[in-house]
Design a protein that fits this description.
The structure holds two protein chains of two kinds. Chain A is α/β, with parallel strands linked by helices. Chain A contains 15 helices and 15 strands. The longest helix of chain A is centred in the middle third of the chain and has 21 residues, at 224-244. In chain B, helix 2 (36-50) crosses helix 9 (193-211) and helix 5 packs across helix 6. The chains are: A alpha/beta, B alpha/beta. Bound molecules: thiamine diphosphate and iron/sulfur cluster.
Chain lengths: 361, 259
Amino acid sequence: MREIKLMKGNEAIAEAFIRAGVDAYFGYPITPQSEVIEYLMYEEPHKRTGMVVLQAESEIAAINMVYGAACTGKKVVTSSSSPGISLMQEGISYIAGSEVPCVLVNVVRGGPGLGTIQPSQADYFQSTKGGGHGDYHLIVIAPSSVQEMVDFVPLAFDLAFKYRNPVIIQSDGVIGQMMEKVELFEQMPRMTNEEIKQKYDDWALTGRTKGREHNIITSLDLVSERQEKFNLKLKEKYDRVEAEEVRYEKIMCDDADYIFVAYGSSSRICQKSVKLAREAGIKVGLFRPITLYPFPFNEIKQMVPHLKGILTVEMSLGQMVYDVKAAVEYRILVEHYGRVGGMIPTPEAIVDALKTKIIGD
Amino acid sequence: MAEIKLEDIIKEENKVFSKTSLFTEKPLSYCPGCGHGVAHRLVLEAIEEMGIVENVIGVAPVGCSVLAYEFMNIDMAEAPHGRATALATGIKRVYPEKFVFTYQGDGDLAAIGTGETIHTCNRGENITIVFINNGIYGMTGGQMAPTTIPKMKTSTSPYGRQVDMMGHPLKMTEIVAQLPGTCFVARHAVHTPALVRKAKKAIRTAFEYQKAKKGTSFVEIVSNCNSGWKMTPIQAIKWLEENMLPFYELGTLKEIGLD
Ligand SMILES: Cc1ncc(C[n+]2csc(CCOP(=O)(O)OP(=O)(O)O)c2C)c(N)n1
Ligand code: SF4
């Protein structure tokens, strides 16, 4: 039977790293996610599975340790919160540009600058539209419960290795800090060096054995014709990701006149708003993007003929709302409602916003 | 005139020196006279002699040697500017049984990467760092480096480095020698055959320290950048001897012993 526990989001994801057979974690403390590295240090995973945990001297060092370790075909992860993720962007761009699989976690807090240690969803642009320099995409998955903090860890690694691309688990301070019941999956074995060599010998740095060319991990190509080809190859990969990896959840959308589009903790609050609105006789549903990249453009577009309007709810000044407007091709009214600075919207305020901004009474 | 072939001049029986097998067939992209090529060779010879090529992973920097992975026929990664030792840390932590080294210029290791260098050495990561100090940023066209010596002219210190305004040169090797995590720290040069032999021995020793799991081994090579210095190779060597070496004294700064 699976183990059931009451856990904080940050501790649950740390436990999931160990159980998913992750080889190494490198990180630097920052609120509201320091419990991740604290939990790992306390658990001594080197004794449980042989997993390496190292506190780096900065997020710059941490992401580059991730880069190095992940170059060898090992499963490697880091976690941070907004300012730390900003500091990692050059490294993330290199990792995407050399097609190295790894997993990142952002437990988002408010910005800009040092902002606040309270929850926020204002890093949507950063994670889904680039963040670092150059044409690249992260695969972005957004958990909305402590359970998903756990379940998305193996999923993130599967996607990272399937596409040889960095994957970011985009959480926020609410989910990182809240405690919920969680079902933990069984311990998965770490891959042996021999298994890694067999599986990834065409690209991973494992030492040049006889009979094979030396493997090189680089994001540099000074020959423009070749670099363009490489960029186009990345584009093909992103096209495949967009075609095959869209994930979302629909709640009470079948008969809905209006929908909320919300992810992460905002989507949890919207569940209550759906109930409140329906009690007041307004037929509302909730559409929750699980992958923020690839974004469920088509799935939202298909709903347009049945809808009178959409309210996006985010803890930001309105970032995902641009993608929702693009998805509906501006054919129906789409408005944004959100709180910022670490403030969390209430279910009632969301229903009010639906009435005033969309229904118009 | 008949064509002269290389084989007519270099016959098997009178061959006393050949390229290490760990060089790829790619021609080096360095300027004629530059020390990078010799330093590459010494690293590769040490690896070849120790018979460890299947167990070596290298990390190239951003700088003139950014393409080191094209010339070194071993598994290698190319790090963001200054972060080579962080990558090496990551690699070594998940593969403690591999030999891991970085090859970095002075801008890479002693300016933008100062933090990573100090912390890697201070943690005593069991890796080898090869540090090429040519007193200038070669790749970007000869700007001032943290290692540029007082009064030395570069494109961003066109009247010579004025220490009151631009700060003092940083002796990174002296700094890391003081850190408890380093086991072998030495400064060498490669502009004469005798010095090449000594430098090679030091690089080999550095890898031996890694084999013995003693901590971070660190070898600085005081080198030239004749293009950046705007000198001929011969002038550059003379200038190096007269100006760089009095400031950057050669020798072993730290050696804790192999046993
Ligand atoms: C983040 C970042 N900043 C700046 C640069 C530009 N840059 C490339 S190489 C270099 C300096 C290289 O000098 P050094 O490390 O001394 O190596 P050398 O070329 O002399 O061998 C700089 C500043 C860069 N590539 N990345
Ligand atoms: S620019 Fe300087 S460091 Fe770079 S290859 Fe030429 S001589 Fe060497």
